[in-house]
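Q: My labmate handed me this sequence with no annotations at all. I'd like to see what the chain might look like in three dimensions before we decide whether it's worth expressing. Could you predict it?
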Amino acid sequence: MNVRLAEERDLATVEALTRAAYAHYVPLLGREPLPMTDDYRPRIAAGEVWLLEESGEAVGLLVLEENGESLTIFSVAVMPERQSAGLGRRLLVFAEEEALRRGFTTLHLYTNATMTRNIAIYRRYGFDETSRSPNEKRPGWIRIDMEKTLAAAEDRRSA
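A: Here is what I predict for the chain of 159 residues:
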């Protein structure tokens, strides 16, 4: 398996993978989650979208945004038939490594309060909830912000 930057030719793959990975949330939320409605063309051009490939096939993706003092995970998506196989965790590890490579000491993400399974996963991976607030892009939704303070590689070796 390898992780690589998405290219313009990957746009349809990115959109299809995102739609498939998030589709099960539509009944829970009553509408499509933000990653399903996002325009990925400018994100790909900006180098924000990473594909996790297995045998040349995209099985997951990660969208990372630089925001001031932290790197923000906008989306972690894994093909439904490959969920619960550790691929999401692999993408989170990559996000942490990428944040450290870029000189960030904090990794940030946000999610919907009704996505309790995701919240539990992020907590197990070391993210702490930092705030809850109304989602300005989706009236009636509650946004949960989470952060993880990152240890540099030399700090992790001495722990």
